[in-house]
């Protein structure tokens, strides 16, 4: 049982770390001379332009920003609640609250990655200053980490739903 508990804790911490990296790192859309995420566009790793209201599609990026942040916060809250429930729940009870919060985190990261997937072309191609730069790019590792974090938080949420507190 102790090995299972250690695995679940490590799995949850890994999910949170993936969410932090995917939210913060500047590699959602990358090319040879640029990197772009939901916060800024950088050329040659030195010249960074913050995405602001003048950026067409800013409200879409704000939705991605908000859902990624919310997903990270919910994942951390789920971990804290898991630790509290670990010592508070009676034997044989399930970690339902932890599961619900972790599945909400999963939903948020899925929404963020799906919005970015759907609107990425509109975001980068509708802004003339970045069009020539970002037209020849590919999804970066932070974007892929967001989808991996979706899978991890989903599996974690299901594990908490199935898991019963035992001796």
What does this structure look like?
This protein is of the alpha+beta class and 167 residues long. Helix content is 68%, strand content 9%. It is built from 5 helices and 5 strands; from the N terminus they run αββββαααβα. It has helices spanning 2-24, 58-88, 96-125, 128-134, 141-162, and strands at residues 29-30, 34-36, 40-43, 47-50, 138-139. It has a 5-stranded antiparallel sheet with strand order 4-3-2-1-5. A hairpin with a 3-residue loop joins β1 and β2. The longest helix has 31 residues, at 58-88. The radius of gyration is 18 Å and the shape is elongated. The N and C termini lie close together (7 Å). Its main location: membrane. This is Epithelial membrane protein 2.
**Overall domain count:** 1
**Strand residues, percent:** 5-15%
C-alpha Rg (nearest Å): 18 Å
Largest sheet: 5 strands, antiparallel
User: Which ranges are low-confidence, i.e. pLDDT below 50, for 5 or more consecutive residues?
Assistant: none
Q: What overall geometry do the principal axes of the alpha carbons give?
A: elongated
InterPro entries: EMP-2, PMP-22/EMP/MP20-like, PMP22/EMP/MP20/Claudin, PMP22_EMP_MP20
Keywords: Cell membrane, Cytoplasm, Golgi apparatus, Membrane, Nucleus, Signal, Transmembrane, Transmembrane helix
Signal peptide: 1-16
Pfam families: PMP22_Claudin
Provide keyphrases for this structure.
alpha+beta, integrin binding, PMP22_EMP_MP20, transmembrane helix, 167 residues, PMP22/EMP/MP20/Claudin
Produce a short descriptive summary.
With 167 residues, the chain is an alpha+beta fold. The protein has helices at residues 2-24, 58-88, 96-125, 128-134, 141-162, and strands at 29-30, 34-36, 40-43, 47-50, 138-139. InterPro entries: EMP-2, PMP-22/EMP/MP20-like, PMP22/EMP/MP20/Claudin, PMP22_EMP_MP20.
């Amino acid at each position: 049982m102790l090995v299972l508990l250690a695995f679940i804790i490590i799995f949850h911490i890994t999910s949170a770390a993936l969410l932090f990296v995917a939210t913060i790192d500047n590699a959602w859309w990358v090319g040879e001379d640029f990197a772009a995420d939901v916060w800024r566009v950088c050329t040659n790793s030195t010249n960074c332009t913050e995405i602001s209201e003048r950026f067409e599609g800013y409200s879409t990026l704000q939705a991605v920003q908000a859902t990624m942040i919310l997903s990270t916060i919910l994942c951390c809250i789920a971990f804290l609640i898991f630790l509290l429930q670990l010592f508070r729940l009676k034997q044989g009870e399930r970690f339902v609250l932890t599961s619900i919060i972790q599945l909400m985190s999963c939903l948020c990261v899925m929404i963020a990655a799906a919005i970015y997937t759907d609107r990425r072309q509109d975001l980068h191609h509708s802004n003339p200053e970045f069009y020539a730069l970002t037209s020849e790019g590919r999804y970066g590792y932070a974007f892929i980490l967001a989808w991996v974090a979706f899978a991890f938080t989903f599996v974690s949420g299901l594990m908490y739903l199935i898991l019963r507190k035992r001796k």
